[in-house]
């Protein structure tokens, strides 16, 4: 997508510097900073510290991390060590393990002297694939928005509500939940997006920044406002992303998503989840019982970062001294609350049967 009229991906390979460039998302929406990643430690820190964030983008970053690992040492032992090192960086988003497995499976039978170039080629391929997958999610999601728009008075916008940031910043480009929004806007459909602030890291501010760059009408709201808006008929559709989806269609997303799904069900508002198939964990059935939930540092709760009155970016404490903060980063929305899953192959029911019918090749291979 574009920043100040210039197209950017959330990460890209600089051939002149022979290194990966990322948008350091810790400073957005107030400051646009690009960082070059040169070491394995920097790759790990970028993932852990959420300089890169979002399940698809974490997966793409991990592929480039493996490419660097193979450049430094292409041995089997180094490959396995790198797999373990990066797999431990964040526990919830399944794309991380998916990407690392794909790299290791490709590289294992290749002679060591060819691994570095093969790993880099695969990372480029995976990044390009992610762009196309998310574009197709937008194509399929657009049809849902078209159907809603056709039932509304002429000129009245389709009002969408989203939680967290599942935009192009969370992927290589387009985003998951935002891709249908971009497609609808570009197709001339009037839309208005309610953007949850998404505490504790206020990732809704990233969504607002993205939508503003693209000229999409939106408002930034508190996390607790969604139910009120639904009660008063001001939400036509909820659409979120997901960091891990079980084979029966439970979705694990940023903390607070479950509450939005409950409010949507109570008010007969359709609740859709946009996801690439790489986010499906075919080995897990019951998301609440089986998905590990990342517990992040309490400082994300007790402090908040923003632009100070003098224009500087700073951090302030919002809690009394000595107050502990609890910070589970994700929750699980059971499939019964999900209207449908928007994937790169189309829209399906959030169920074992729905996902297996949409991805028969993946369901059989990955569950084995």
Automatic annotation (TrEMBL):
Keywords: Amino-acid biosynthesis, Isomerase, Methionine biosynthesis. InterPro entries: IF-2B-related, IF-M1Pi, IF_2B-like_C, Initiation_fac_2B_a/b/d, M1Pi_N, NagB/RpiA_transferase-like. Pathway: Amino-acid biosynthesis; L-methionine biosynthesis via salvage pathway; L-methionine from S-methyl-5-thio-alpha-D-ribose 1-phosphate: step 1/6. It comes from the Bacteria. The keyword Isomerase applies. NCBIfam families: eIF-2B_rel (TIGR00524), PRK05720.1 (NF004326), salvage_mtnA (TIGR00512). Belongs to the EIF-2B alpha/beta/delta subunits family. MtnA subfamily. This is Methylthioribose-1-phosphate isomerase. The lineage of its organism: Bacteria, Pseudomonadati, Pseudomonadota, Alphaproteobacteria, Rhodobacterales. The gene is mtnA.
């Amino acid at each position: 997508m574009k920043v100040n009229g210039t197209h950017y991906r959330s990460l890209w390979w600089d051939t002149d510097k022979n290194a990966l460039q990322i948008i350091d998302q810790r400073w957005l929406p107030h400051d646009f900073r690009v960082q070059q990643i040169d070491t394995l430690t920097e790759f790990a820190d970028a993932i852990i510290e959420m300089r890169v964030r979002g399940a698809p983008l974490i997966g793409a970053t991990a592929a480039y991390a493996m490419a660097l690992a193979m450049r430094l040492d292409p041995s089997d032992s180094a490959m396995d060590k790198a797999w373990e090192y990066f797999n431990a960086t964040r526990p919830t988003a399944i794309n991380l393990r998916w990407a690392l497995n794909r790299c290791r499976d490709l590289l294992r039978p290749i002679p060591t002297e060819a691994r570095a170039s093969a790993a880099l080629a695969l990372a480029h391929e995976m990044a390009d694939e992610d762009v196309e997958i998310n574009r197709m999610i937008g194509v399929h999601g657009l049809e849902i928005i078209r159907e809603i728009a056709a039932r509304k008075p002429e000129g009245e916008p389709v009002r969408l509500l989203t939680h967290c940031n599942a935009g192009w910043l969370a992927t290589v480009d387009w985003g998951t939940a935002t891709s249908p929004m971009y497609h609808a806007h570009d197709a001339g459909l009037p839309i208005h997006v309610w953007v949850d602030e998404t505490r504790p890291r206020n990732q809704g501010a990233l969504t607002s920044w993205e939508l503003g760059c693209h000229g999409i009408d939106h408002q930034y709201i508190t996390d607790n406002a969604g139910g009120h808006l639904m009660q008063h008929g001001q939400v036509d559709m909820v659409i979120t992303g997901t960091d891990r989806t079980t084979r029966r269609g439970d979705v694990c997303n940023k903390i607070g998503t479950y509450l939005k799904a409950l409010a949507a069900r109570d008010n007969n508002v359709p609740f859709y989840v946009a996801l690439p198939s790489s986010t499906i964990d075919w080995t897990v059935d019951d998301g609440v019982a089986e998905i590990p939930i990342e517990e992040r540092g309490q400082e994300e709760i007790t402090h908040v970062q923003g632009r100070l009155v003098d224009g500087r970016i700073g951090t302030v404490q919002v809690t009394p001294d000595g107050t502990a903060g609890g910070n589970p980063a994700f929750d699980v929305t059971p499939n019964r609350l999900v209207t449908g899953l928007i994937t790169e192959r189309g829209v399906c029911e959030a169920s074992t049967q729905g996902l297996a019918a949409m991805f028969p090749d993946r369901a059989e291979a990955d569950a084995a």
